[in-house]
Amino acid sequence: MSKAARSVAVTVTPLTRQTGSGEFLQRPASIEHEIANAVALPAGQLRARASAKPGDEESMSSECIVHLIRQDLRDGSRRLADELTPLLLERCEASLHGSVRGFTSAAARDIREDVLDRLALSLLGPGDEADFLEVRFGLALKRLRIDACRRQRRRDQRQILLDDYCAGEGDPDSTIPAIDRLQSDRARQEDRLMIKQALASLAAPERDVLVLHRLAGIPLRSKVKAHPDLVSLLKCSERTLRNRLRRAERRLQMLQESPE
Amino acid sequence: MSAPSPGSSLQDAFQELVARSDSLDAAALEATISRYPQFTAELTEFAVEWVLQDQLPDDGKTSEGVELSKGDSATPSVLARFRQHLDARDANSGGGPAPLNPFTPLSPTGMRRVAAAVGIDKTLLAKLRDRRIVATTLPSSLNRDLASALQVPGAVLDAHLAAPACVPAGLSFKSANRPEVGSKETFADAVQRSSLDDEDKAGLLALD
Fold first, then answer.
1. Does B77 touch chain A (CB under 8 A)?
2. Is A151 within 8 Å of A114 (Cβ atoms)?
3. Nearest-by-Cβ selection for A76 from B45, B96, B102
């Protein structure tokens, strides 16, 4: 049976979370429709759809699964929540497994656990923090993933002893090959390890300039006033930014030459 | 775009940033920082991590057909904690979380503010909070103003008012006896019994 084959007049609990501009979050019409149909399905069929691989015609969207779990908990039950939550978490972990980059296997597992914990707890919360999961689940998972990576990297950095910190002058262009290697799909395992060490050993201000300028391509100072640049974003002078960039690239260069 | 609501969290700021574009964009970062200046450092750090996650080479792992070994999967431990939370919730409340009550977050000051915004007294507002007024007798304009003052969609307020009357949890009572759930009354009766002056009563009763 196709997703649209059955349509049942069901009022779906409205979302109460407000966006930054003060409007209430709204589920896309397709999700509302899917939810209205899903609540009329027998338990076996519901489970089968939730278990189907995302992308299959019969599969249920994560937004719909989230709604069914939250509604079940609101109704004082937990039968559906007990059945559907493992399916949702497994689906998310498979997605996270391929998208957490630049960490050891153990750290990547910690990140996945962190994301899934936050996701599960938000489903349990009586408030409306999980409303966004019913609107654009993929985007909400992306936010949780990047935030978990951010916190893990901060933990990694605390563990690295910043010893021979070099603040000498140098030609910044001399380290551009290292940046190219960072972006290369063919980067070898040792390259990745070196990059990880380099990023972890950089102080946050240097790392921020390096990544945002060299990788994201944001100019230090834009020639066009209306275009954002790092001077305005990071509230620093161009000279300070150049110094930070030079120190970061020098550090990267040193690690390239003596990776131990 | 207007300023974010005062209760906006760091997660709201992150969510707004990722929703602005598929990959990090300088203009999106600048716009988000200007709306959430209190989170400038965190947003910058988040942006840096976003770039790294997009640009670092993958480790040859893809989500296609992934089957994590039991030891490598985080799902079982997360699920165990999730079920512990559910068990604790069930043990404490004997059921699920209460249905959405738009009055729950209101402090006494908040109650006064909402009452003033819709032009009723606190007693009348408390009756609406405790669902002691028949929902169908409420003027639609008052219903609309109340939903706006409570900052909830009208459907949430309708669902709340239509539920059976209740004794609010978390409030203190001076009486030695446990308060009882009373029967529902019409809006007109509730207005007549309120402390409002005659002019205000007449104004409320004249609402559509």
1. yes
2. yes
3. B96
